[in-house]
Amino acid sequence: MLRVRDEGHARRSLAVKAPRTMADLLQRVAANGDVEAFKALFETYAPRVKSYMLRQGADPATAEELAQETLLAVWRKAALYSDEKGSATTWIFTIARNLRIDRLRKEVAWQPLPENNDERASEDPGPDEELSERERGERVRATLAELPPDQSEVVNLAFIEGLSHSEIAKRLGLPLGTVKSRMRLAYQKIRGALEDLR
Amino acid sequence: MTITHHPDIATLMCCSAGSQPEACAAVIASHLAVCPQCRAEARKMQKIGVALFDSLEPETVAVPPPVATMRAAEADTPEKSEPCVLSAGEIPQFLVSCVGPCLDRMSWDPVARGLWTHAIALSPGACGDLRLLKVEPGAAFPDHTHVGWELTLVLRGSYSDEFGTFLPGDVADLDEDTHHNPVACAQNGCICLMASEHKHPLFSGADRAK
Questions:
Q1: Which domain CATH number covers B135?
Q2: Residue A192 in contact with residue B44, Cβ under 8 Å?
Q3: Which residue in B has a C-alpha nearest to residue A80's C-alpha?
Q4: A162 touching B, CB under 8 A?
Q5: B127-177: per-residue pLDDT in tens?
């Protein structure tokens, strides 16, 4: 799985388009402490992590600091990553999410990093994995884009603005039951789109 | 472990988003540790977060940290494994640091006849309440009119109410204004992990006496 160090400049394409490249970069960081690979990861992910932190309510200085810190954690924890744990983006997003809970909410992030799951093996078999991982991501994005506005709104408030379902209900002036049923409907569509693929 | 009662999909989604309160996240994480079905759902939900994250408009960020800073950060060696399984003592591993490794050896504070509790400290400023409850065989849980959400995970024994029987691994995910009358199993009683939006007044005395 490891690539030779001087294979050329790290490609700068987006994680979306080249999940394999991102996973390789991460593995190069893990195996060799490859600074060039890290810089390429930084350029791809730090701007998105900063954007995420801003949407979660951080001021610009804090968002910048948390973006730096997230990527520094990627450098530090790279050895814990393996592609069995999902895409590089999933892993880095989880680090960012947990750092947000820790710093912006000042609470303990109980959700661990993605672990090795025995279930995963049967879920995504072998060499098709990169393709299916990418295809899954695209399906989810496409389904999200097609959600009715009221469902899309609650999903965004939860995932991007960091509101709990009770907070969403308060923000929108809706009964909690309505918020929950919109989330359930949105998820049914996502799940349907993912199952279709298998 | 056969699990029949799972958390609401919306609760799982908000936990995957990292937006539920800490007490709620703790109970869900404990359920996920023993429930492969909900873990599979949570993995799909994570793809929602990742897809939305991926489509955010990138913001300009300063240059990467200098190599010296990166090297210095390495000194902070990462935890070898992330906690995620039930310990042998039926206590979710990440709670072991709060309550010890074994349900039989931890300390309990008496609340009422047949009822003990062990409060679990949350981060300062976190809203909600997290605690273990021990109910003796056949005893009823305390008066149950909640004024907020409540999430309960059975760790040992069982209890029954209007919604069915809850065995180890089962979760009751209840909204405000839900009325139920849980009674602990007549043979084994019940030990559960409970998160709630507001602390039940009954526990204030027991927590203070500590």
A1: 2.60.120.10
A2: no
A3: B80
A4: yes
A5: 899 999 999 999 988 766 667 889 999 999 999 999 999 999 999 999 887
Q: Which of A42, A94, A183 sits opposite B64 (nearest CB)?
A: A42
For chain A, which domains are there? 7-117 (1.10.1740.10), 127-198 (1.10.10.10)
pTM summary value: 0.85
Domain extent, residue B5, equals 1-57+86-210
| A19 vs B: CB within 8 A | no
- Whether A108 sits inside 8 A of B58 (CB atoms) is no
Cα gap A87→A133, rounded to integer Å: 7
User: Residue B21 falls within a domain, yes or no?
Assistant: yes
**Distance from the B165 Cα atom to the nearest Cα atom in chain A, whole angstroms:** 24
pLDDT of residue A130: 52
ipTM of the complex: 0.86
Tell me whether residues B10 and A180 touch, CB distance under 8 A: yes
For A6-22, b where at least 16 C-beta lie within 10 A, e where not — what string?
eeeebeeebbbebbebb
Residue B32 lies in a domain: yes
Q: Tens of pLDDT along A77-101?
A: 888 887 776 788 988 999 999 899 8
Give which of B155, B151, B152 is closest to B190, Cα–Cα.
B155
What pLDDT shows up at residue A106? Answer: 75
> Residue A164 and residue B24: Cβ atoms within 8 Å?
yes
